[in-house]
Amino acid sequence: MWVHVDAAYAGSACICPEFRHFMDGVEGANSFSLNAHKWFLTTLDCCCLWVKDPSALIKSLSTNPEFLRNKATESRQVVDYKDWQITLSRRFRALKLWFVLRSYGVANLRSFMRSHVEMAKLFEGLVAMDKRFEIVVPRNFAMVCFRVSPKAMGMRKSKKAERRPSGRSLSNAIWSPPPTKRRPHYQPPPTTGDAHPLWHQLDP
């Protein structure tokens, strides 16, 4: 059995020590991935993949016709990533991630993550104080999942409240009627000052 940990969004937060406990037990996984373009200041697309035993992956995906053979690969001087994927070539995505790491450094990246978590806490508090809304699931990072309370407004008014004249909208997620709204705080340039205007726009 192959156990894969898909930390596409939340994995980036684990650069901060206070979130690292979410990684407890990850050493038992066979592979781990995170999308640096989601919350790591890297442009689309960029995915980081770690594999405990690359040989299992290579055995299933490698292809070595004569015209692809070369001394560097066969002598293991290089890692030939064509054997880690279906396609034979790839864009040099690692370079932009390297620039992010070199430009920001660990301290600034942690500060970036923490600022978004604080924004989410602020927005979560605004939602929690209003009886017309309810938090659907506990917030762990910088995404707040909430919805218009069916008990407070009824389904008809709940659906009407989803349409705002400002043209702003939040993505839906399926939980149970009415649709759940997701408010992510993980892309620049939002600041803590954005939480209140957004909240007023959502006011049904």
TrEMBL record:
SUPFAM superfamilies documented for this protein: PLP-dependent transferases
Top-level division of the source organism's lineage: Eukaryota
Record region (Disordered): 155-204
GO terms classed as biological process: amino acid metabolic process; carboxylic acid metabolic process
Cofactor field: pyridoxal 5'-phosphate
GO cellular component, one term: cytoplasm
This protein's UniProt keywords: Decarboxylase, Lyase, Pyridoxal phosphate
GO molecular function: carboxy-lyase activity; pyridoxal phosphate binding
Similarity annotation: Belongs to the group II decarboxylase family.
Record protein name field: Tyrosine decarboxylase
